[in-house]
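Final report, Chapter 2: Outcomes

The project's central promise was a pipeline that accepts a single protein chain and returns its three-dimensional structure in a standardized token representation, suitable for archiving and comparison. That pipeline is now operational. To close this chapter, we reproduce one record exactly as it appears in the project archive, with the input sequence first and the structure output second.
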Amino acid sequence: MDRIPVIGDIVRYRGKQGLHAVRAAIVTADVTTLDPEGVKLGAVPALDDESHVHLWVFTPGQVGGFHEFNVGPGTEPGTWHWPADAR
């Protein structure tokens, strides 16, 4: 991995359901911003390591998106990856 994701980074998320569509997502928590008290109380899931993040995944349609928690990097369904360079 070329760099560690931080809160506010835009990444791509490959869905776990259906066609495994790739969607835009924003990092909503990383290891430096995760609230340890929230984790302790069970209000927020823990992160496995510094490459895992919590995401808000954007979707077309009325709902607009959904949360995904403790998402690791990769190219398989249920992972995030960096967007390709702008063309």
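Archive annotation: The beta strands are 10-14, 22-29, 53-58, 65-71, 79-81.
This record, like all others produced under the grant, will remain available to the consortium after the project formally closes.
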